[in-house]
Each structure stands twice: as C-alpha cells, then as structure tokens.
C-alpha cells in the first residue's frame, strides 16, 4: 500500500498571496474574482472585507473547497476600515495571482440591474428592498399567509430574519461561488447581491430558488399543522 502522503498537500508547499486596500471593494468585483479569477490551485481564502455596498460593517470572508463561501458581519468597524484578503494554495504564478487580485479594485463592470430586479419583483416569495446599478437588496417573505412578521413570530415562532439568514448561508455554502451578503443588524435582515459583472443575482437565481423553496416548504407545513386559529 502506498503512503498516504501522496494524497495530501504538505503545508511546506503552501503559498499565500495577499490583497490589501483601504478603499471599499464592490460585491461585483468580489463575485467576478471568485467566479473567474481565483487561482485553480487555491485551497482556501480568508480575510476581512470592506464592502462598498455596506461600508459601515466589517465582514469576515472564508472560502473553502468547491468555492463554498462564508461572509459574516461582525458589526460596525471598531477601527479604520480596510480589506485584507489572503489566498492560500499551491504552485501559484505569483505575477498572475497578484494581477488577478488587483481586479478586486474594479468598479466598471457592466450592470444587469433591471433584469435582476425583475426576477425579484416577479416572485411573490421575495420583497425588493433596494436596487442600484451595482447591487440589489431583497428579503424572503411568507406568501402563504396574510399575517405580518410580528404576528408570525409571536403566534407561530417563525422569524423572517432567521429565514433570510438561513437562505444566505445555504446559497453561499452550496458551492460554485454564489455570494449573498446579509445586511445587518436586525430587525429586517436583507440579502445583498451583485447585479454587475459576469456572476450576478441572475446567475445565482437557481440556487436562490432551490433553497428558498426548501425553507418555505417547512414554513408552509408548520402553518398548515398549527391549530392556534391564526
């Protein structure tokens, strides 16, 4: 039997390249980088993000195998904001990796805002909160009841902020570079997505649709089984 070493990557061969910026980066640039410019031999990426679409909050970013992403707000910035992103992998072509990292500073990606907004407006599971040329902000809603969010939470223990957080996490962990950012703090947690560049809300829509269907199926079942009269 061969040595197990042939199936693992020695930490001695890992290489790290770092991108730093005191200017905010756009979601569009972040999605474009993860979707098409991340080195193919990347093992993981992690860091702190200063996001243009939500500049007052500090975000922790992690990317692991199959482009599974975690983007978590840690609250308002306790210091001067900046982006510090480290890409870790093997056999990097350093000049190319650094050149690709510099694309995180781009702000001139073509916008698909109208088509993305139409997707949200046409689906009664979602509420369109805000849209610009660079990003869209939306929320999951419950289309199977006339109860407002306060009544849902009080009578059925269904918290729409929880459901929005669940959707964001599910899409980001599904792989493929999908990236939804949770707009915090509570109440009224919303989801932010890029509408510019190659990967946008529209390219993520199949994942959003799939996981929203799963989440709301549980809600529908809970409401159908409730005997409280509301």
UniProtKB/TrEMBL annotation:
Residues 14-105 form the CobW C-terminal domain. Keywords: Chaperone, Nucleotide-binding. One of its GO terms (molecular function) is nucleotide binding. The keyword Chaperone applies. The keyword NAD does not apply. This is CobW C-terminal domain-containing protein. It comes from Aphanomyces astaci (Crayfish plague agent).
